[in-house]
UniProtKB/TrEMBL annotation:
Full protein name: Glycosyltransferase
Family: Belongs to the UDP-glycosyltransferase family.
UniProtKB keywords: Glycosyltransferase, Transferase
PANTHER family xrefs: GLYCOSYLTRANSFERASE (PTHR48047), UDP-GLYCOSYLTRANSFERASE 89A2-LIKE (PTHR48047:SF12)
Length: 474
């Protein structure tokens, strides 16, 4: 019989705090879905404009998941009404991270007002300040990494050695498996943009360093992809509370509305009807995430490249503001849609990405290589045409192209304009021949599915994670 000290709490109350950026939030909501299925009681913290993203989760778990809505704290450099990174772009992360830090005292007061407060905090790694909150509350905090184990290792090193790394044109990570080397310009943009002595930037740095003190780590990756880096992390933090539970998109709720805050059934039907008429593996899906808006020259080069490739395509175009539209940002060139009416489909705004990537007609994904997109591509078994631009994308492109052999580079850099002839040729060759990439992508998909199946590495870690949470609050 279990003693009071070891008895598991079947329904521990956990606070989940996602970061308001698509690639971060989707993965943590998928994890929250699994925790609810395993019997946990969850309070999930969002600001008002991010509440609609919780709709699928709340309708699936009305009795076990409760939203906690706090007003978005003001910041002098954030326009009124902005509460999500998609509205300010990647360079706005610093501001949103700093603004959300103002929730520490209100959250502390909320905890102390509860008759049954959460026994642990699971928060995004961009919310490292919640480690200080957890310390004040004397409860464990788990850092959720929406990305891969390798990037966690890179972040740990560069933020602990800022001045040294900033002086190098190439950075060698000799302490990591394989001793990888990266150019300075290919390091995560949050680090490249860091400015010493700026209060917001110092807050960001402090939060990212605080992640290393968290009670546990949860990662959206799987062992067959990068098990050696997970082992390195366990050794580095000197405990085994490192849980590699991805790809989380495979074990989240229904994917048809994934990442959407509105109604989309008509669009889903239209896209699926179009794809159903295409041969298997013949369509290249083109999307650069929720934050990146291409400028006029890039839009024209990409449109021309797609047309010249003579390949079927679905191109998702992020709409900009009225002023950005006037300046040509995100504007599809005149006549393009008419000329390619039989060849492709242009979607302006949100698209059912996970649904598209899982359709048998889709064989390739022209992407910026954000981790959420990479993960969904792996699950769909499609090869990647990589155009890394910022954030962790250069690091991810290296994994896909050089290490795993499931992708090819088509361009590099946020400001680069591809040569449309070359782009068209690479798309055409990759989609018709693939050079073994398509086969390797299918193999990687099989490994991803195996990881989240019963007895698989990710499912075992998820069970272990839930068991650890069950020991809390007793």
């Amino acid at each position: 019989m279990a003693t009071a000290a070891t008895r598991s709490n079947p329904h521990p109350h956990i606070l989940v705090f996602p970061y308001p950026a698509q690639g971060h939030m989707l993965a943590l909501l998928d994890l929250t879905h699994q925790l609810a299925l395993h019997g946990l009681t969850i309070t999930i913290l969002v600001t008002p404009k991010n509440l609609p993203f919780l709709s699928p989760l709340l309708s699936s778990h009305p009795s076990s998941i409760t939203p906690l809505v706090f007003p978005f704290p003001s910041h002098p450099l954030i326009p009124p009404g902005v509460e999500h990174v998609k509205d300010v772009g990647n360079c706005g992360n610093r501001l949103i991270m700093a603004a959300l830090g103002k929730l520490e005292d209100p959250l502390f007061n909320w905890f102390n007002s509860q008759s049954n407060p959460p026994v642990a905090i699971i928060s995004d790694f961009f919310l490292g300040w919640t480690q200080h909150l957890a310390t004040r509350l004397q409860i464990p905090r788990l850092a959720f990494f929406s990305t891969r184990a390798f990037l966690v290792s890179v972040f740990d090193y560069i933020w602990n050695n800022v001045e040294k790394v900033k002086c190098l044109s190439e950075v060698e990570f000799g302490h990591l498996p394989g001793s990888p080397v990266f150019k300075q310009e290919h390091l995560p943009s949050l680090f490249k943009l860091y400015k010493r002595s700026d209060p917001d930037w110092e807050f960001v740095k402090d939060g990212l360093l605080a992640n290393t003190k968290s009670w546990g780590y949860v990662l959206n990756s799987f062992d067959a992809l990068e098990g050696e880096y997970v082992q390195w992390l366990k050794t580095h933090v000197a405990h085994d509370r490192v849980f590699n539970v991805g790809p989380l998109s495979l074990i989240g709720p229904d994917v048809s509305d994934r990442g959407n805050s509105g109604s989309s059934s008509d669009l889903n039907d239209q896209v699926m009807t179009w794809l159903n008429q295409c041969p298997d593996g013949s369509v290249v899906y083109v999307c650069f995430g929720s934050q990146k808006l291409l400028r006029k020259e890039q839009m024209e080069a990409l449109a021309s490249g797609l047309e010249k490739s003579d390949t079927r395509f679905i191109w998702v175009v992020k709409p900009g503001t009225t002023q950005q539209h006037v300046e040509g940002f995100g504007v599809v060139p005149d006549g393009f849609e008419q000329r390619t009416a039989g060849q492709g489909l242009v979607i302006k705004g949100w698209a059912p990405q996970a649904l598209i990537l899982n359709h048998k007609a889709v064989g390739g994904f022209l992407s910026h290589c954000g981790w959420n997109s990479v993960s969904e591509a792996i699950v769909g078994g499609v090869m990647m045409l990589a155009w890394p631009m910022e954030a962790d994308q250069f690091v991810n492109a290296r994994l896909l192209v050089d290490d795993m052999g499931v992708g090819v580079r088509v361009c590099e850099g946020a400001d680069s304009v591809p040569n449309s002839d070359e782009l068209g040729r690479v798309i055409s060759e990759a989609m018709t021949e693939g050079g073994g990439m398509k086969t390797k992508a299918k193999d990687l998909k099989d490994k991803a599915f195996a990881a989240v199946s019963h007895g698989g590495s990710s499912m075992n870690d998820l069970v272990r994670f839930v068991k650890e949470l069950g020991q809390l609050g007793r």
